[in-house]
Amino acid sequence: MYISIKNRRSFLILSLLILTGFCVLVSACTALKTPASANSRKLILRDEGLSQLSYVDLNNSDKNWFVPVPAGRDLQLVGKGRVLIGTGTGFEERDIATGAKVSELTAFPGTQTARRLRNGNTLLAGADWQGNKGIVLVETNNQGAAQRLIVYPGFTYVRCIRETVKGTFLVTADDLVFEGNDKGEIIWQAKVAGPPAKPHIWQALRLANGHTVVSTGYAKNFQVFAADGKPVATFTGTEDVKPNFFSGFQILKNGNYLVTNWQGHGPKFGTSGNQLLEFSPEGKMVWSWKQDADKFSSLQGVIVLDGLDVSKLHVENARGILEAVK
């Protein structure tokens, strides 16, 4: 087919306009993944570098508070306006309005992480602990007394634990994530790809389609595994946000993943990287937050409070999204 020079120019202009319009439409659709309110979120943040817990209102800094806390891992809304943080001896509960300590358990030195269960008890985890070899889970009641003990032999490293909707546990163990039952049996597992060989993976959540999404520590990405344990997706942030160590994360109501991008031990990392990164379910980075270097060093955990009832205990539902326990 022959197109004259004049018509060819018109054809090119029309094609360019169509392509531009398509790109604008795609960009608009992508932008819908991040709510307009992203920059006015209310957050609870755990800063490992400073051993600090904070409340941050991105729209009103007058409401912010920052308090020192013991070293430890994980954080969770546990009702009565409180947030639970794991410590090296058990856990603490802190008042969300002020950051003040209102409760603690200190009888379990060697605790690596703590998580409140649906039944109201608290699960503590450690490695080569409580007189047992391997990853050890201890369930304690409201009085701090041990109710049951679960051992997964053969492991020397543990980070975060998540209870699934069927009552099993997703456990992160350096380069492996596994699902274990209350008998100490491993019923599912997947191996995270490095580098490095031992990435110190942090947290895992089960999705409604049976996939498991993992924040992979020093592998500095998310890795997603199918029900058969095979990898199905990997995604990370752009170079400008300096991906370093993907740690605590939350699946938001729109399906996006919000992760803390930890930068290093100690108080000197406040200028390093963007330490909150948000990804669409397809793995596209759609939002990031640059921390104030005068207030933060290295973020390890996050809870987005918007839309959540802090008077209720929150656990992940079948979609991996936080929901209140009635």
UniProtKB/TrEMBL annotation:
Protein name per the record: Uncharacterized protein
Classification via PROSITE patterns: PROKAR_LIPOPROTEIN (PS51257)
